[in-house]
């Protein structure tokens, strides 16, 4: 659990009890389940299917592969009980035709995982699905000290 980001959870959720939170390049981030248990709706994007299944299995979450999404060359996995939806496909094909109106973004290590010349597109996609003015808490695993978390 990445406490540094959790310190900013009120900013991510806008202090809402039921915020819609975006996890780009989510991997197996355990915070998805942690925040879902708090009542929030979670949407992740991850292209490694085994990672998506491991996240669900390791957290003992039942799930269904609910639909194929040709736009991202992938599928959607859902745990309806906890309002967790993970798009298993290419983030760079994700966008507002699939999801919009995120109250906030939780990103740990995603920006660094993409090539430098793709980072503009990475953040453009993020902005296109967020509510106007919504915050993004980003944590870079490589930076240390006070620079670790930027908002
Ligand atoms: C550094 S990890 C992120 C870990 C995660 N955010 C966490 O907090 O544990 C980067 C993840 O991005 C995924 N990834 C990389 N490029 C992607 C893309 N174009 N579309 C979807 N997922 C991608 C990788 O498979 C990997 O799981």
UniProtKB/TrEMBL annotation:
SUPFAM superfamilies: S-adenosyl-L-methionine-dependent methyltransferases. GO terms for molecular function: thiopurine S-methyltransferase activity. Keywords: Methyltransferase, S-adenosyl-L-methionine, Transferase. It comes from Mytilus galloprovincialis (Mediterranean mussel). InterPro entries: SAM-dependent_MTases_sf, TPMT. PROSITE patterns: SAM_MT_TPMT. The keyword S-adenosyl-L-methionine applies. GO terms for biological process: methylation. This is Thiopurine S-methyltransferase.
């Amino acid at each position: 659990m990445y406490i540094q980001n959790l310190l900013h959870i009120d900013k991510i959720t806008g202090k809402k009890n039921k915020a819609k939170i975006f996890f780009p390049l989510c991997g197996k981030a355990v915070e998805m389940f942690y925040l879902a248990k708090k009542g929030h709706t979670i949407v992740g994007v991850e292209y490694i299917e085994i990672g998506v299944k491991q996240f669900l299995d390791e957290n003992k979450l039942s799930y269904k592969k609910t639909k194929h999404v040709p736009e991202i060359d992938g599928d959607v996995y859902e745990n309806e009980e906890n309002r967790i939806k993970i798009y298993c496909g290419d983030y760079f094909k994700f966008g507002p035709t699939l999801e919009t109106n995120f109250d906030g973004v939780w990103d740990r290590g995603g920006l660094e995982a993409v090539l430098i010349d793709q980072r503009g597109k990475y953040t453009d996609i993020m902005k296109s699905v967020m509510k106007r003015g919504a915050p993004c808490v980003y944590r870079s695993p490589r930076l240390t000290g006070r620079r670790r978390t930027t908002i």
